[in-house]
Amino acid sequence: MDVICTGCSRHYKIAEEKLPSDGVAYFTCPNCKERIKIQAPSKTISLSTDEKAVTTESQGFESFEPGTKTALAYCPESQARELLQKELSGLGYEVRLINQQDDIRSRFRYHIYDLIILCQNGPEPEDDLSNIQEYISSLLMDMRRKILVVYIHSRGNRLDSMQAFSMGADLTISPPDLKDLSEILSPALDAKEIAYKVFFECKAKVEEEVF
Prior knowledge:
By secondary structure, the chain is of the alpha/beta class. It has 2 domains: 1-44, no CATH class; 69-195, 3-Layer(aba) Sandwich (Rossmann fold), CATH 3.40.50. The chain is built from 8 helices and 9 strands. It has helices at 49-59, 78-90, 101-107, 127-138, 141-144, 161-166, 181-195, 197-210, and strands spanning 2-4, 11-13, 24-28, 35-39, 69-74, 93-97, 115-119, 148-152, 171-173. The relative contact order is 0.11.
């Protein structure tokens, strides 16, 4: 299971079977010394639908089944937002909308999303978009490398890797490219996985030795 330190946002992977029988343990972050409570998902107390809604709204918490593809989307223009949600849902993603930095910060306290889509509405990025970009850039390396960030703007060019890099993204596309999103995302995700395969294999071995 993935565990994110509440003090410094460092990411750890801990085997659920190593937790005590009650499914609850405490772990001190080696980086910032924050004391972290770890609770296995299978041991989490079931909540009613109303209780889940209150918890999600007030704390930004939401759990997903293992293997669920998850995406965050910032898209202020309503028509483009509807099209984006439709395309991502069609690709099997659970999509959650974000409007400002606090939204993405809250979301990442409990889950690392596979995909982030950022839409620039106009010639210059809005303040909220810039703040969201700033947060993404501040993520720890091992966390950031798990996420494919796609930036959509009028001059987006999916073949221009330097343009994407300058925007803190993995890929830039233009609004008309949305209709071909399934064809664009698949090779981009494969390329990212190949690029960091050795990194994550080495990290997993180190974590096995530590935990």
